[in-house]
């Protein structure tokens, strides 16, 4: 966080592990810390610098750990604090760093703070959460939950309602209370003292709500509204994050990384959050490129991809944080469908090429790339057959709400299959064998049937696999400062099939170009690129230099050239 250490994470690549789906060492069907320890060699081989773990704290698991009931321990599902210490030591011994997921906007309703808070209107913890009286015998306002229904639940003990932007088992903390902020800072210090290297902060731009909690403008046909304007980048959020950074990292030496997950964040806000001079966060996860193919009020409404819109969304973020601030770069995480199925082409002929082309485009940009487990293998969406295949509460609640409103069930199921979070949560595909080598027991989520041919074991043995392409991209980022720092200039912005841009420093220039479609394309590149040498291509047999200004690209052909 301090100025002299500001740069290390700019050339780093982060790998996200969703522990319950990564590797199971004890046969209970859930991934665990022991499983991660066994697979550290795999991550070393991939070459990543930082590992981010989705939450492993004790939790009722209503939202798979994003509902924390104790911030200072490990859920027995995953292991013990002693095992955590072993994992951390081994990660450090491999030269990697560990980032914890910090869920601070809300806790579990089973956290002792909330148990106390709900016990009486006069309990000292009452004000740690957001309680309001009923309005005309109904919810205090019209805010909806991200997981369907109202964002308020009435608690019988006191008759008041508490706010939960997510599930009713995830009550929102009241960040206006300085004791809440101090408690969270203490938790962060506790983990840093244990040796962790930073935090990914869940929905951290939601922690400050508009004072008075006003109604959101109503939407026809909707009783509740996701009131983004009343909690996204709210009035005190910058003050709270600056205070957190000062109190937690202020006097601490070391190399840390902080990234705030920020649905709905704008480029102007992101520049403020990540301006090193303001001392808030190192980078944010923005969502603009994740919403280009979703309906504005309903993420399960699938619009299909317009590549120009996607290119411009990411291009805008590249430009906006060029001078001040820093981008994170990601295609996937535990909340998103698999990118090869979403923006690529997962048919047999183009699966590998489109997975590697999309990787090339993302890793060529300026920012810190994040790889989500299995993305480096080109893992695909799951062939969901019906609602019974979905485990995620967001999916289950959404389906129920559509049925409630007499909506079209088959459209809802198609939306869930395409956009559902469970796509990312099927077990990691290690081998062609039973349960893809994930567990010796019964996996908590079904394994994708394509693990027989799509798995780590076969890709590690193949010279031209999706895995080896990710390996090469990560190596390039470490070796070429121009990939880290070079200015980005988009090319052919209106082309619906070609994605291209240059990176440049006073010392050199790089061309990143991909054909994002099946049809071959011949593209005219500037005369300056004649003689450029190929740094990386994703198809076998790509010539090692550009010999003319006409570049012929096969379907899903992607290349990185260095100018001579
Ligand atoms: O997600 C925040 C978020 O707003 C979405 O991306 C979320 O996945 C949801 O689908 C919105 O429709 C974070 C976590 O990453 C997610 O796993 C949690 O469920 C959520 O916060 C609550 O903690």
From TrEMBL:
> GO molecular function terms here?
alpha-amylase activity; isomerase activity
Q: Which InterPro entries match?
A: GH, GH13_cat_dom, Glyco_hydro_b, O16G_dom_2
**Hydrolase keyword on record:** yes
Query: Per UniProt, which keywords does this protein have?
Result: Glycosidase, Hydrolase, Isomerase
**Which GO BP terms apply?**
oligosaccharide catabolic process
Residues in domain Glycosyl hydrolase family 13 catalytic? 16-425
The family line of this record is: Belongs to the glycosyl hydrolase 13 family.
Q: What is this protein called?
A: Oligo-1,6-glucosidase
